[in-house]
Amino acid sequence: NLCEITLESFADQTKNPRISFLVNKLHVSFVALLTHLSQITSNISRLAIKSLFFINNRVVECPELRKALELVYSQVLPQCVGKFGPNRSQSSKADTNIFAYFSLQIPANLLDVNVHPTKEQVLFTNSKQITEGIIDACKEALLAESDVQCFSFNACSASTSSVPKTKLNTSGEILTSLQSLTNRKVLPQFKVRTDYKSRTLEAFFDVPEPFKAVISSGESTNSEVCIVPAENEKKRDKSPDLAFDSDPADIVSPPRKRTLINKELQQWTKEKYGKASLKNTDELGMPQKRTELEDKFRMLVLDLEKDASPKLRNVLRECKYVGLTTHKRRYMLVQRGLSLLNLDLDQMLEEMFHQLLLRNFGNLGEYRLNKPIALDAILKKLGSREEEERRRIHDQIIAKQILLFDYFTFRIQKHKDGLFYLHGFPMLLDKYLPDLCQMPTLMYRLGEIIGETSDESRLLSALIRLLSQFYSNKLTPMSREEDKCYRWSLEHVILPAFRSVYFPSKSIEETKAITTLTTLPVLYKSFERC
Question: N or C: which end of the chain has fewer CB within 10 A?
Answer without folding.
Answer: C
